[in-house]
Amino acid sequence: MALVPEAIRFKAVGQTFATESGPLTALSGVDLSIAQHEFVAVLGPSGCGKSTLLRLTAGLMTPTKGHVSVFGHAVDTPRDDVGIVFQQATLLPWANVLDNVTFPAKHKRGRVDDMDRARAAEVIEAVGLKGFETRLPAELSGGMQQRVGIARALFLNPDILLMDEPFSALDALTRDAMGFELLKLWQSSPKTVMFITHSIPEAVLLADRIVVMSARPGRIIADLRVPLGRPRDERALRAPEVQDFAAHLRELLIAKEAMI
Amino acid sequence: MTADADIAPAHDAEEKAPGLSLTERLISAPAALPLLTFAALLIVWEASARIFAIPSYILPAPTRVIQGFGAVDAGRWVAHVWATLRVALIGFAVAIAVSLPIAVGLAKSRLLSRALYPILVVIQSVPVVAVAPIIIVVLGTDDAPRVVITFMISFFPLVVSMTTGLMATPPELIELSRSLRAPQHREITQIRLPYAIPYIFSGLKISITLAVIGAVVAEFVAADVGIGYFIQFSTSMFKLPQAWAGLVILVAMSLTLFQAVSTAQRVFFPWSLPKERR
To answer: Looking at beta carbons, which residues of chain B come within 8 Å of A84?
Structure first.
């Protein structure tokens, strides 16, 4: 582990928002270190500040306390080596799949060149949408739309991929299939992944490490390594020790809920 | 965005068609029912005008209105229609040109929104019909005052719909834009404005019919040509059938313009329509 560089670092991070009913503490005393190419799931109930964690890493906000750094540099503005996948695919409804995927280039530089299109073809194929380049988002299923969302995030080839409950709007079957495909993608082209979720099975299936958070104020209550090798399949998930691990996670979440 | 679920409904109506009763078939043919209702109304109107011998200056029968079209020759009608249409279209264009930057300002800056919005509401609350004579005195009697009046009556719904549309962008896309550190103007042109298209078009549809009203109001106050002028002139001479003929032309003009806006949306921005109407 010592040789792997640190990708993301949270040091005593606290985040307070001003709301109409007074200040709201979303995060408190968060210390977290994620190594390069590590897949970390952040698991917690809704309103525990999971998304705040992600937006801090993305440089979309700055912490009110403590420090966030990415590859050793303090995050004070969004970085090029960070890609985001949102809960909803939030594609541009007027643009086809190809234009949605190349949108970061068009938006950042004002134009799309042949290299961009070649790169887009690559990521579109990687997410299994080859042949759908000219379709509009409305013509795609929810799962396919989110594949486009992932392709758009991969387009600039970021080293860090931030995923904010990306599969939570999908039906259960699609969700499982997308999880396995994400793992394949991650294994063929390693990235540091911060994966926000409130689903225990999803966290267990995907992650190397699971960070469990409590609700307001969001704190890290456990940081556990998933007792599963790779590559993973459905059968490995049914192993008794994995089931025990999932049960333990459930207890952690429920115990914290009960205290509130 | 649930493409999985809603593939089927659009075709339901056609598949059921064979075994339908007459009423059901009438309801499923979109144009038939309103046309029939309209025809029935005309017949009742014609019949009552004849049976009760209603004087034509109170309610001319449809056949008398048709005769009213012959009151002036075709060239004169074209001149009247063109005068009104020109003012309505220029006023409409000015309304679009003015409301777009205002809407962008209102959507982007809370300060500007606080400073400007009350003034816009006050302008909107002014009865334009009452200001029209003042505007005519100030600006003279050519097209300019009529365009200003048309603009005043038609710009507010545009500002409101554009501002609402510009604010309706999903926050994630704004975050995406920020995460790419893209220049501000591209956030407007590549994300917010296209996202506002459906809202903008609902504003345009309201605004274009208001523009016709504005042009007519302006002609009531001061004009020597135009359908509004023609109607006022005809009524002052108690020539009601030809005034009604003018009215029919105005309605046709409004409907055509409205339809033109709808068609523009369907042709240029089909994605902005609900699926079943593409």
So the answer is: 175-176, 179
Q: Helix, strand or coil for residue A15? A: strand
State both tokens at B101: 């930057």
A53 vs B255: CA distance, rounded Å: 54
What are the φ/ψ torsions at residue A29 (nearest 5 degrees)?
55, 50
- Among candidates B170, B186, B272 on the partner chain, residue whose Cβ is nearest the Cβ of A110: B186
| Residue A7, amino acid | A
Which bin fits A187, alpha (ψ -120 to 50), beta or left (φ > 0)? alpha
Reference A9, options A64, A87, A80, A63; nearest CA is A63
Cβ atoms of A214 and A44 closer than 8 Å: yes
Which one of A60, A78, A140 has the shortest CB-CB distance to B3?
A: A140
Q: Do B1 and A142 touch (CB under 8 A)?
A: yes
Q: Which residues of A touch B176 (CB under 8 A)?
A: 84, 86, 90, 104, 107
CB B191 within 8 A of CB B175: no
Residue type, A141: S
Angle between helices B193-221 and B240-268 in degrees, nearest 10: 170
The 3-class SS string of B129-198 reads HHHHHHHHHHHCCCHHHHHHHHHHHHHHHHHHHHHHHHHCCCHHHHHHHHHCCCCHHHHHHHHHHHHHHH
> Mutating which of A77, A90, A102 best tests the B interface, going by the most B Cβ atoms within 10 A?
A90
> Any chain B CB within 8 A of the CB of A17?
no
- Select from A140, A133, A80 the least CA-distant residue to A105: A80
pTM here is: 0.81
**Pairwise CB contact (< 8 Å): B3 & A58:** no
Residue whose C-alpha is closest to residue B160's, from B88, B94, B100: B100
- Alpha carbon distance A62, A51 (integer Å): 13
* Angle ∠(B115,B186,A63) on CA atoms, nearest 5: 75
CB count, 10 Å around CB of A252? 20
Contact B91, B154 (CB under 8 A): yes
Cβ neighbour number for residue B100 with a 10 Å cutoff: 17
Q: Block means of pLDDT (10 residues each) for chain B, length 278 residues?
A: 41 49 69 87 92 87 90 91 96 96 90 88 86 89 90 92 92 92 90 94 95 94 91 91 93 96 94 76
The span from the CA of A19 to the CA of B157, in Å, is 32
ipTM of the complex: 0.87
CB-count burial class (<10 Å; 0-12, 13-18, 19+) for A228: middle
Contact B190 A60 (CB under 8 A): no
Determine, for residues A93 and B271 on separate chains, whether the beta-carbon distance falls below 8 Å: yes
Cα dihedral value B184, B185, B191, B193, nearest 10: 140
